[in-house]
Amino acid sequence: MSQPTIESILQENRVFPPPEEFSREAAIASLEDYQQLYDKAKADPQAFWAELAEKELHWFQKWDTVLDWQPPVAKWFVGGKMNISYNCLDRHLTTWRKNKAALIWEGEPGDSRTLTYAQLHREVCQMANVLKELGVQKGDVVGIYMPMIPEAAIAMLACARIGAAHSVVFGGFSSEALRDRLNDAEAKLVITADGGYRKDKAVPLKEQVDLAIANNHAPSVKNVLVVQRTGQKVHMEPGRDHWWHDLKLNASADCPAEPMDSEDLLFILYTSGSTGKPKGVVHTTAGYNLYTHMTTKWTFDLKDTDVYWCTADVGWITGHSYIVYGPLSNGATTLMYEGAPRPSNPGCFWDVIEKYGVTIFYTAPTAIRAFIKMGEHLPKARNLSSLRLLGTVGEPINPEAWMWYHKIIGNERCPIVDTWWQTETGGFMLTPLPGATPTKPGSATFPFPGILAEVVDLDGNPAADNEGGYLVIKHPWPSMMRTVYGDDERFRRTYWEHIAPKDGQYFYFAGDGARRDEEGYFWVMGRVDDVISVAGHRLGTMEIESALVSHPAVAEAAVVGKPDELKGEEVFAFVTLEGDYEESEALEKELKQHVVNEIGAIARPGEIRFTDAMPKTRSGKIMRRLLRNLAAGQEIAGDTSTLEDRTVLDKLRGGA
Ligand code: 7RM
Q1: Best of 281, 420, 543 for a ligand 1 pocket test (most atoms within 8 Å of beta carbon)
Q2: Ligand 1 touching residue 569 (CB < 6 A)
Q3: Contact predicate 634/5, CB 8 Å
Q4: pTM
Q5: Whole-angstrom Cα distance, residue 225 to residue 209?
Q6: Which phi and psi (to 5°) does residue 337 adopt?
Q7: Ligand 1 contact, 511 CB (< 6 A)
Q8: How far are the Cα atoms of 248, 295, 621 from residue 325, in angstroms, in the given order?
């Protein structure tokens, strides 16, 4: 099992048409239907989105202008007023869905909870009132640092309800990383839990919040709302920290949703790039609601009887768009699972599918590769016949893993939707529509209707068939990121100038290389920048380098991705030491732990190689290409003539 290589993907020519019984029941039931929809959207994108916005969402007030596009600044449904929490909750209460399961939750220790739409609405209203009581106002930012429990979704919806923007920080991030994000967003309040369960252990969360905001290090944070999850002992600072279960006792369940302007800030979500600190990706209300609604509806071909499970964490965009907002806006039943496959319970995912009769299962290639390794006897020992549709996200899926997923989990009858998108895009950009699109293992197939995607060269010229290039989007779409929080200039530079605009045509580019085959299928090849993907988590190599050099022993650090069978990539760090330090196993361990403290366990280097010098060009740039070759244990490929000191390479190899 390995990552897709250009060779393996070029040889991939299997095609899987949608199963007939699936197409028969599907909303978009043939390639012709898709093509028609796509053409219609392309001919008049504004009319296309306006029609759907009218039909699919509730508005307090209709918009005046569908799209105001002053590149690269887009405003959608200008003048409209709506609330995404209303669309996810209130509007379902006047239908039979009132008592339908909105959220099914399975806790790691085996506890569980189901909230109907009416119950979820009640909890959200109560938390919204508590936030107001604690001084949160429309326009404020609230940090959310939570385990995978219903209150994570409740917190997001409660913020949206009162017009506060949320900034969810993945619970696996360290207190340092949390602090940076809280400060950048100037969060007024943090919603957290005493702890959460991760792989048979109760991990502390409130303690991390304490560390993040101690000594006035995050001065904007005035209050902390704490959900009791594990019962572990935590410090509660009087006047600042409040238990949710205490405040809930007197919280009214009456809290009308605040009418929000279409372009009001909905949330900030931090993501890694190739340079600088993580960027606060800004998403706004109406366009995000519409796009996540439509992509959930069509890509998962949602039916009212579906039990839909996305295994992501709410700390990532996938959790935002496809655990919380997209499914709930559609009135679907969304399942949330606190656990993860672990040695004590390697079949836990299949247990969850069997227990709840999951019909749609959406996970990441890295998880699939781990399942393969754990053995097919595990899924085979469970009844997975409820499944009707499978999905993947996060990285290119290697055809072998795709075939295993198709055969062993899907029993050769479930279509697979390989969805390519990003934190920045808000929702699916390239994806099959399961009743319509013949799939090819490893290809995210075609653009969603309304998305004009292309593979181009640096001058913006379309690449020839099967020729690699940059994957760009050429027309604004409703859920596109609006800016980098507090840094419009960085937004422009990062996403819109890599490929220079020409003749008024702007190209959105966020870092992936791709090619299109002769039938128009897109094959995403992976990042072309210094962003790596470890177990589907996006990390900037520079962030890890900064973490390393903040340790007194480290003079210089260069981080690259090393191909890894399971995780896709692993963090591989080259480090030169300050004069007074000597390499040792103890120091290696210490540096790894240092990265964990600075960023979080997901960034822990798998390997650190000490070196006397880095391979550099004459202008002093570290030659990462060489380091990537070295990390992968490959021969150095390509030109090394620009290398300043060739003996450096021999020394580095010697360490291999
Ligand atoms: C949703 C998410 C975005 C990056 C993106 C790609 C990679 C995501 C796929 C994929 C190939 C896919 N958001 N990526 N999905 N590559 N095929 N289906 O992952 O912001 O965290 O990462 O992930 O490189 O640029 S993210």
Answers
A1: 420
A2: no
A3: no
A4: 0.94
A5: 11
A6: -125, 130
A7: yes
A8: 24, 11, 43
